[in-house]
Design brief:
alpha/beta, TIM Barrel, single chain, 8-stranded parallel β-sheet, 10 helices
């Protein structure tokens, strides 16, 4: 199988400390494409993410400011992101969005940051990666007002219900599912996943966070994406190999991977 981990954080110190081994295990598990996302913390996370992508076949990057750190989304930070995005291995802007669960940044600051990310993605003609937690209605309203960038976008680590899934699908998003899909108490997420057409699905680890069963509570890594794929295939009553190929094509289409000389892991 050609597996695609559409969202993880290889620059996180919990992964970067033994990155070669993690990449090796991913390769053995059949993972051939990884989208590594910066965004969390300072601009150095984005810089390291791009560096990893530029030196690792099969790895591409997304750069942005996580909503937890929306207060850092200054004009200077956006200019630094714009410069990093000149790398051909940067295939998306984000993750940006709204997180009304933790509220580490005020809602109005998160919304302003999201708008600036949407503008930057449109300017650079790249898709946007969206983080959304307990803010589906407000996020949908902002997207409906501004519209998606021409290249589209993905709601990563989707945790909403079927109604939210349908709303985001109508707005043009892909929906990506993480290891949460495997949790016993996540029936709402599985119901939503069943509602998503195969040509709008993605899977991810969000490593080092959210390890799937039976690794829940441990450090996550890209090799574990196969666990999420297995559950998603059961939900859609299809073969994992067929679903993996469909997801691979979805990622190629959204992130424009056919125009990037990325190779495979």
């Amino acid at each position: 199988m050609h597996l695609t981990d559409s969202h993880c954080h290889l620059a996180d110190k919990r992964l970067y400390s033994d990155l070669d081994e993690i990449i090796g295990r991913a390769r053995l598990a059949g993972v051939r494409t990884i989208i590594s996302v910066g965004a969390i913390g300072s601009i150095e996370s984005d810089r390291l993410t791009v560096e990893i992508a530029e030196h690792t076949p099969g790895v591409c990057a997304a750069v942005g400011v996580h909503p937890h750190h929306a207060t850092d989304c200054t004009s200077k930070r956006l200019e630094e992101l714009r410069e990093l995005a000149r790398s051909p291995k940067v295939v998306a802007i984000g993750e940006s969005g709204l997180d009304f669960h933790y509220m580490y940044s005020p809602a109005e600051v998160q919304e302003a940051s999201l708008r600036r990310h949407l503008e930057l993605a449109a300017e650079l003609d790249k898709p946007i990666v969206i983080h959304c937690r307990q803010a589906e209605k407000r996020l949908a309203a902002i997207i409906a007002e501004m519209t998606l960038p021409r290249r589209g976008g993905v709601v990563h680590c989707f945790t909403g219900d079927t109604v939210a899934a349908e709303t985001f699908l109508k707005l043009g998003f892909y929906l990506s599912f993480s290891g949460i899909l495997t949790f016993r108490n996540a029936q709402q997420v599985r119901d939503a996943a069943a509602h998503v057409p195969l040509d709008r699905l993605m899977i991810e680890t969000d490593a080092p966070y959210l390890a799937p069963e039976p690794y829940r509570g441990r450090r996550n890594e890209p090799a574990y994406v196969i666990r999420t794929l297995a559950v998603l295939a059961e939900i859609h009553q299809t073969q994992p190999e067929l679903l993996a190929e469909k997801i691979r094509n979805n990622a190629r289409r959204l992130f424009g991977l056919d125009t990037v000389l990325i190779g495979v892991l």
